[in-house]
């Protein structure tokens, strides 16, 4: 089985961060920790002017939290530690002084929707459906919720969060502004990403830094908020409902 990884590559002032997990690009704690550190590092790298966030493979962009790790959580402290990984990644993206372009090539579930929402400009292809499945397993999208709500609004976020088993298609996500662009195929998506990244790489770093700060205005309290949300998820994941629901998902 292929091994999970997070890697980055700098080329012509553009840092591309790629993550992979053999289980549909799910996010175990190690991947979350690596992602937050690599994003933080790219944000502070003087040679990087813009960042592209992508995942490997041709199927799912990101399946969200690792069920193997969720089912292994035994205490509220362990639950807080795991879900704080999502908080750290979102906050790393929020505070990164460089614009982050998201390459959304496939389906997004749970935390994957959070990643798509937390990038500054998401470019997707048709078939990149979205689903916030957390409520179906007794948790709720508490940590990623602020990022998703910021991007698509409270009403659309509520629809996703409440109807936790229904996929919304990529056109729905584009119309709700989760995706800035939607392309019919990979070539069109990648060409648009290349064009935007190269344009930003030749833009003023100071101007982009100020623009990023303005775009995320009003989220300064998220360091505390997302950790509070992580504690809620960390408590709920211990319920019998959640353990039974995850066990059923794993047997499908």
List keywords for this structure.
252 residues; alpha/beta; 2-enoyl-CoA Hydratase, Chain A, domain 1; two-stranded parallel sheet; 11 helices; globular
Task: Please give the structural blueprint.
Blueprint: E1 5-11, E2 14-20, E3 26-27, H1 29-44, E4 50-55, E5 64-65, H2 67-72, H3 76-95, E6 99-104, E7 108-109, H4 111-118, E8 121-125, E9 130-131, H5 145-152, H6 154-162, H7 170-175, E10 181-183, H8 186-201, H9 205-215, H10 222-236, H11 240-251
Parallel strand pairs: 2-4, 3-5, 4-6, 6-8, 7-9, 8-10
Antiparallel strand pairs: 1-2
Helix pairs in contact: 1-3, 3-4, 3-10, 4-5, 5-6
Structure commentary:
The chain has eleven helices and ten strands. It has 252 residues and is of the alpha/beta class. It has one domain: 2-enoyl-CoA Hydratase, Chain A, domain 1 (Alpha-Beta Complex), CATH 3.90.226. The chain has a six-stranded mixed β-sheet, sandwiched between helices. Helix 3 packs parallel to helix 4, helix 3 packs antiparallel against helix 10 and helix 4 crosses helix 5. The mean pLDDT is 96.
C-alpha geometry: globular
Number of domains: 1
Q: What is the CA-atom radius of gyration, in angstroms?
A: 17 Å
Helix content: 40-55%
The CATH architecture can be named as Alpha-Beta Complex
Which regions are unreliable across 5 or more consecutive residues at pLDDT < 50? none
**What is the chains' assembly state?**
single chain
Per DSSP, what share of the residues sits in E-state strands of 2 or more residues?
A: 15-25%
Series of secondary-structure elements, N-terminal to C-terminal: EEEHEEHHEEHEEHHHEHHHH
User: Which fold name is given in CATH as the topology?
Assistant: 2-enoyl-CoA Hydratase, Chain A, domain 1
The total count of helices amounts to 11
State the strand order across the main sheet: 1-2-4-6-8-10
The main β sheet shows up as: 6 strands, mixed
Top CATH class: Alpha Beta
Average residue-wise pLDDT: 96
Number of strands: 10
How far apart the termini lie comes to 20 Å
